[in-house]
Structure formats: C-alpha cells, structure tokens
Amino acid sequence: MEQRNKLETITMVDLINLYRERAELKTVSDEELDHILKTSQDKTIIGYDLSKNNISHKDLSGFKFEGVIFPIDFEFKNFNFEGTIFTSVCFYGLEFDKCNLKSTTFEFVDACDTTFYCCNLTDSNWLCCDAKATSILRCDLTVTDFYNVNFFESAFKRTNMEAVSFRDCIAKDTNFGKNDLTGSVIINTSFGRSVFDNINYCDVSFINVDVEDARFVKCDFSRVYSIDKDCNFVAEQIEKIHTMFVSTIAYNDENSLSSVLTIAYLAAMQYYFIPIREM
Fold first, then answer.
1. For residue 228, what pLDDT band results from cuts at 50, 70 and 90?
2. Do residues 264 and 243 make contact, with C-beta atoms less than 8 angstroms apart?
3. What residues form DSSP beta bridges with 120?
4. Which of 28, 142, 154, 273 could form a disulfide with 32 if both were Cys (CB 3.0 to 4.6 A apart)?
5. Measured between alpha carbons, how far is 278 from 271 in angstroms, rounded to an integer?
C-alpha cells in the first residue's frame, strides 16, 4: 500500500527526470542547438535533452527526432512539423496549437496528457505510442493510421477522421464528439465505456471491436461493414437463416426478411460490433 501511494504522487517532472536518467541524454545551449539544426546534413537529432532550451520560431519540418525530450508544458504554436519523424520522444504535457503535422510519424512516443488543437495531422502514422489522456480537438486526421496506440481516457472532438485506421488500439473511457469517421477501418480495438456523441460512421468497417458499456448518441451507422467484406459468405448465411426460420407462405414478406437480418446480426455480435437499427 505504501509503495502504491508513492507511485500516485509522482509528478510530470519526476517522470521527465526518470526518462532523462535512463536515456543518458546530452544537453546543449540554445546557440549550439541552432548550429546543430542548421548544419545537420541528414536532419537527424538523436539523444538530446531540450527541456530547458528555447525552441520558439524554429522550422523543425523534415527532421528526425530520436530519444529527445522537449520542454515541459511547452506550447508549439504555428510550428511546421511536416514530414517530421518522432521516435522514442517524450511529449508529456505538451500543447500543439495550429501546427502543421502532415505526414508526421510518431513511433514509440510518450504523448500522455498532450493536446492537439486545430492541427493538420493528415496522413500521419502512429506506431506503438502511449497517448493516455490526450486531447485531439478540431484537428484534421484524414488518412491517419493508428497502430497499437493507447488512448485511454482521451478525447477526440470536432475532428475530421475520414479514412482513419485504428488497429490493435485501446480507447477505453474515451470521449468522441462530433467527428466524421467516413470510410474508416477499426480492427482489434477496445472502446469499452467510451462515449460516442453525434458521430458519422458511414462506410466504416468494424472487425473484432469491443464496445462493452459504450454509449452511442445521435450516431449515423449508414453502410457499416463487419465481416471482412466477404459478400458471398454473408449471402450464404442470410439464405440459411431465411430457410430455417421463415415459412413458405411468408418467404417474401418484408417483415420476415427484417427478422432474418436481426437474427443474423444477433448471432454475429459475439465476434463483431454491428449496430442494430431500432425496431
């Protein structure tokens, strides 16, 4: 019990210091940092502690940052990070305001309690990141790929998420509000206890998705796909249920067909998330 209480009192600064000690990072002055950014031929910055540097008004687009700590609670406002690669980077508590993060790659990034506001994150890639309590607000995430990302207790609000891919992610207790997920693919992802408010799921594919105790309010589930797009398999199963449960006299009745589809959906819910229309 005593050990657990100690862990609960760890602050963000403590976490940064722990990260710094384990990584054995180098520190540089602001002048040395300017020189490195200007003279780096391959635009690669590896193993630096920049937590006390002034990085305002710097063009960091196209760089690769690996094993770098950025200033604590720093606000990146109108920064250009297009094409930047972040690998094993510490983002604790940072804020990105109106930044260009198009085609950016996040690999093994600690992004807990990070805020993205009005940012362009189109065509970005997130791989094996910890993004607990992250807020993504009024951003553009079109064609973004999330693979093995932890979004526990995070928030996605008023964000364009068309053609987004969630694979092997955790998004429990997460708040989704007024987002457009048209054409997205969601695979092996947990949304337990999350809230979905006014979401467009048109043409979305759900494969092995957990939505236990999740709440859906005013959501559009038009043309939702769920069984690996195997049309022949779906048709065979529908025909089998139709033959088993519908009498010959009512075979072509609209209500009978509705009942057949409902039975098929209920049978598939053990493996797939399939929203059922109100009866």
1. low
2. no
3. 100, 140
4. 28
5. 21
